[in-house]
From TrEMBL:
InterPro entries: Cyt_c-like_dom (IPR009056), Cyt_c-like_dom_sf (IPR036909), Multihaem_cyt_sf (IPR036280)
Position of the signal peptide: 1-27
Protein name (record): Class III cytochrome C family protein
Segments passing through the bilayer: 165-182, 221-242
Residues annotated as domain Cytochrome c: 29-127
PROSITE patterns: CYTC (PS51007)
One Gene Ontology term of the molecular function aspect: metal ion binding
Organism annotation: Kaistella treverensis
Keywords recorded for this protein, A-Z: Heme, Iron, Membrane, Metal-binding, Signal, Transmembrane, Transmembrane helix
């Protein structure tokens, strides 16, 4: 009897331990390492809290155990080679494949059992997110949201300096006005002198007399005013159609700083026709969906001042509305909405400009020429020579004048890439001629190979 009670107590203890650890019976993994692996390997198709291409993976171990009576061994097999698991006749593997539109999950045979356990531990017990440092709190009072402490301090110092300059300027202006008032007072007193009152009363000066006396001065002023007016009209006409700094709001907010800067996305991934065609087109919304089909919310570290996560998430939802994408069912509804983008760069109809010619044939020459002329603002992508440091722009703006003079200046100062085998052979005679004419240091610039011919750009 005593022996039976002893074994009974041991059984209860064992059952209690089993129940207390049932949620993590497989959990011999490291959740933090699992988080890194999950973000590197899984986030393209999965999230913890919602369905993307594949199902939500939060609590997948417990859910699989409860609903299908399957343990982590099944998950190991599925993750490493789900195709082999389906081919073996596993019913649930086939069911999952059918449920998610027969999209085959990428196998991960390179993941070790321990790494898979780390990922599963993360899906069950994800570590709490570390609170982001409040940069504004550390910075100057009243600093914009998202500004770091150093920038906020610089802004505070700059504002303080501006306030001092304004105060000193106002005091100087006040002192000058006071001095003028005193001088005017002295003049008034002088005019009121008893000896001058009679003389001033009897003296009359006509406008005709003044004109005859100072007519040369008057005519000179009229001529000067005419010259200034003509120059003003000419200058305003010359700047018609020049919109440097133009940066309109777009129907969907798109930050090039986040995409090209923070995430290092190549310009030509979206603007593919810039390399192979005359025009660099505005990408279709399908290009956006190549990434945003699986990126339904913004989780980046960078936040533009005045913007928050909810703002960026809302803009992603606009992409879904435009393309008719339903993130819940992971399918297109067919109900699309056109996006009316505002064009920023637009050459006149009488100007011929070929992007491919500059992006491909002129890439090396343009980058080298720009970096020589701008050693403090070197570029690594040919697009930046004309469009500016786009990877730092939250809102794209017209970075240059794009006038005829601006183009000609570039053609006169950009050296042709003579290391290119084609150019070296094709312009060999021209190069030798220039050396004889201008010396051994003569260089072949774009203007020497037809870069100033009217018919090249106007037809």
């Amino acid at each position: 009897m005593i022996s039976w009670r002893k074994h009974y107590k041991r059984g209860l203890i064992a059952i209690g331990l089993l129940l207390s650890t049932s949620a993590s019976i497989y959990a011999q993994g490291d959740a933090k390492n699992g988080e890194k692996l999950f973000k590197a390997q899984c986030t393209a198709c999965h999230a913890l809290d919602k369905q993307l291409v594949g199902p939500a993976l939060g609590g997948v171990v417990e859910r699989l155990k409860t609903e299908q009576n399957l343990d982590t061994d099944w998950l190991h097999k599925w993750i490493k080679d789900n195709k082999s698991l389906r081919e073996s006749g596993d019913k649930y593997a086939i069911e999952v494949y059918e449920k998610f539109n027969k999209v085959e999950m990428t196998p991960f045979p390179n993941l070790s059992d321990q790494e898979i356990d780390d990922i599963l531990e993360y899906t069950t017990n994800p570590p709490a997110a570390e609170p982001a440092a409040d940069a504004t709190a550390a910075g100057a009072p009243g600093a914009p949201a998202g500004m770091d402490a150093v920038t906020a301090l610089e802004v505070s110092k700059r504002e303080s300096m501006n306030s001092k300059v304004i105060l000193i300027s106002l005091l100087a202006i006040g002192a000058l006005l006071l001095w003028l008032l005193l001088k005017l007072r002295q003049l008034v007193k002088l005019q009121q002198d008893d000896d001058l009152v009679g003389v001033n009363a009897n003296k009359a000066v006509s406008f005709g007399e003044l004109y005859r006396k100072y007519h040369y001065v008057g005519k000179g002023l009229v001529v000067l005013l005419g010259i200034f007016a003509a120059y003003g009209i000419w200058n305003s006409l010359m700047w018609i159609g020049v919109y440097k700094g133009y940066k309109p709001d777009q129907p969907i907010y798109f930050s090039h700083k986040i995409h090209a800067g923070e995430n290092k996305i190549d310009c030509q991934l979206c603007h593919s026709s810039a390399k192979y065609g005359k025009v660099s087109e505005i990408p279709s919304m399908n290009v956006c969906m190549n990434c945003h089909r699986n990126i339904a919310e913004y989780n980046g570290k960078y936040m533009e001042p005045g913007k928050d996560k909810a703002f960026y998430d809302g803009e992603i939802q606009k992409i879904y509305a435009a393309t008719g994408w339903d993130p819940a069912s992971q399918q297109y509804t067919g109900k699309t909405q056109p996006v009316e983008w505002t064009r920023i760069h637009n050459m006149p109809d009488f100007v011929y400009f070929n992007h491919a010619q500059h992006v491909v044939a002129g890439e090396t020459a343009i980058i080298n020429g720009f970096n020589q002329k701008n050693p403090d603002a070197k570029i690594d992508v040919v697009c930046k020579a004309c469009h500016g440091q786009v990877d730092t722009m939250n809102v794209v703006q017209m970075a240059n004048d794009f006038t005829m003079g601006w183009c000609i200046e570039c053609h006169r100062t950009t050296e042709v890439d003579m290391k290119n085998g084609y150019n070296q052979e094709y312009f060999k005679n021209l190069h030798e001629k220039l050396k004889k004419q201008y010396g051994s240091g003569a260089k072949v610039t774009v203007d020497a190979i037809g870069g100033l011919e009217c018919g090249k750009c106007h037809y």
